[in-house]
TrEMBL record:
Family: Belongs to the short-chain dehydrogenases/reductases (SDR) family.
A Pfam family it matches: adh_short_C2
Highest taxon, organism lineage: Bacteria
The keyword Aminoacyl-tRNA synthetase is annotated on this UniProt entry: no
Name by which UniProt lists this protein: Dehydrogenase
GO molecular function, one term: oxidoreductase activity, acting on the CH-OH group of donors, NAD or NADP as acceptor
The species this protein was found in: Novosphingobium sediminis
Keywords: Oxidoreductase
Amino acid sequence: MQRLEGRVALVTGALRGIGLSAVERLLAEGASVVLTDLADPAAAEVSDVLGRLGPAAHYLRVNVAQEADWQAAAASVRAEHGRLDVLVANAGTDCTSRVEEIALADWHRVMAVNVDGLFLGVKHCAPLMEETGKTTRGGSSVIAISSIMGIVGIADASAYNTSKGAVRLFCKAVAVEFAQKRMPIRVNSVHPGFVRTHLLEQGMAGWVKKGMGESVEALMAGLGASTPMGRIADPSEIAPAVAFLASDDASYITGAELVVDGGWTAQ
């Protein structure tokens, strides 16, 4: 059974990693999916991905830190699809450095993408999601990809920690706000552990450059060894959590944090 048949989802940061895996799973569950990312719609990367995903996948260029982009995206989804059931706020960036060495511009960049991007997406998609949510048992669903680093602190990652902690509490606050106003929009966060993505590889490369490891693969192996299950995750292992929270199976779940970390935060 396709739990999301007839529904429409929008996923940010959708051309790779967790975002792309979430898109693939939502499509498999029957949804039409609007992928958003920074690439030009005419780019080969976009056409390659859309060609592989099929006709239920669509693309919009959205810089999540720009309010005008969100306004345009919400208007486009309304005009083209007439509904929005699921918003997956996945786009993110990081900054790995000692706190005294973080440039203010880098701090602002991380907050703009990871925090402002979520806020703006919810702000501008909520009106259409409220309308849509009235037509389904479970209502509409906002799913923000946070991190275990939104729950626990890790050295040399204070900017990323701060942004992902903000994502966690923003979701809780807005979940309560919508529920108390009887707006049919659930809001939850997903907290992956260490996942083999381009973003993690970039972060590890930064650590290698600063002499904090011999190689990216050695650091990846160390992260796996520090995880009770003995390995880091594949993006496809995060996508089922997204699909669950998007579906009516999660109809009574809002303001929750779903941790998918191989036991890392249980230690």
